[in-house]
Amino acid sequence: MQAHVGGVIRGLVKENSKYALNELLASRAPDISRKLASISWNARVGIVLIDEARLRAYSPRAAVEWALRYETDAGVEETLGGTWFSQKSGIDKTPIYAESYVSRTAVVPSLEFAPEGGPWSRAPEASRVRMTANETRTMLKLKAAGWAAEDFTGAIADIEAKCLADDAVAASPWTVENGKAAIVKSLGAFRLEYEPADVLLQDVVVGQGADKGLFAARRTIAVAAKGSDNFDSDRELVFGEIVKDEFNVPKLRYARAIFDPLGSPRKPDPLPADFPMASCYSNYAV
């Protein structure tokens, strides 16, 4: 795992090399790789995590958030997404499985990326906190209660008091919510349209060392419209950051969900006026 995924990803971050990403995509996303082989293109990475503690364990895992820009007949397009890697054991010869998620493709003005990638960048060093996978899972479950809990009022009270940082950012393919009030308002809007959701957190990878507080997770959210018992689901790849507040209490500061916005059972009707450009990527590891 470390040799086949970790080395490529770390080299990509260190050297900002689009060729390293192409090598990664060649084996894990051949359709995209073939498309990029014959055109001008550029790449950028956001959060990158490798589960060092599990490299010799049963299930090594890694996650990389990426953005691609490439030339098409329509002009320059940008595709935003992320890839989750897993391996059944830490032996190099064991196949590495990859699952890619795409949040949107849009026409953009240039192959070059702007210095900033979105409304979020890493918290100051003094606010960073080491989180275990189980602690991170608990925090994400607390946030998910805004979609899932029968007692919505109680869930929101807990989310405001125990979960969200004052400068929290929540990003989806449709929108970016800045601050507690915007996030709570979005959860309220969801509950007006849908029955309480079923949320399953499947895997979590957390950062170590300089990456402490960063995380990636896979989850499934099943939803049904109000009055319906027919549930449909989204599979998501989530990247984010947990920090400590002034009382040294961990809080969720950033969460970006990557999933298919047009195939989602939660797709707004009509779509937001600024879709697909409402989506963003992380301003980190550029």
Chain-wise SSE layout:
Elements: H1 2-15, H2 18-28, H3 30-37, E1 41-50, E2 61-72, E3 75-87, E4 96-108, H4 133-148, H5 152-163, E5 164-171, E6 176-178, H6 180-193, E7 198-206, E8 214-223, E9 232-244, E10 250-258
Parallel strand pairs: 5-10
Antiparallel strand pairs: 1-2, 2-3, 3-4, 5-6, 7-8, 8-9, 9-10
Helix pairs in contact: 1-2, 2-3, 4-5, 5-6
Any descriptors?
Nuclear Transport Factor 2, Chain: A; 10 strands; 26% helix; 35% strand; 6-stranded mixed β-sheet; alpha+beta; 2 domains; disordered N terminus; 286 residues
Brief synopsis:
The protein has 286 residues and is of the alpha+beta class.
Task: Describe the fold and architecture.
- The longest helix is centred in the middle third of the chain and has 16 residues, at 133-148.
- The chain has 2 domains: 2-108, no CATH class; 125-258, Roll (Nuclear Transport Factor 2, Chain: A), CATH 3.10.450.
- The strands form 2 sheets. Strands 6-5-10-9-8-7 form a 6-stranded mixed sheet. It has a 4-stranded antiparallel sheet with strand order 1-2-3-4, with helices on one face.
- The protein has 6 helices and 10 strands.
- With 286 residues, it is an alpha+beta fold.
Order of helices and strands: HHHEEEEHHEEHEEEE
Write down the overall mean pLDDT: 82
Shape: globular
Class per helix and strand makeup: alpha+beta
Number of strands: 10
Radius of gyration: 19 Å
Low-confidence stretches: 1-18
CATH class of the largest domain: Alpha Beta
Helix content: 25-40%
Number of H/I helices: 6
Number of individual domains: 2
Strand content: 25-35%
Strand arrangement within the widest β-sheet reads 6-5-10-9-8-7
* Main sheet properties: 6 strands, mixed
The CATH architecture name of the largest domain reads Roll
- What is the first-to-last residue Cα distance? 23 Å
CATH topology of the largest domain: Nuclear Transport Factor 2, Chain: A
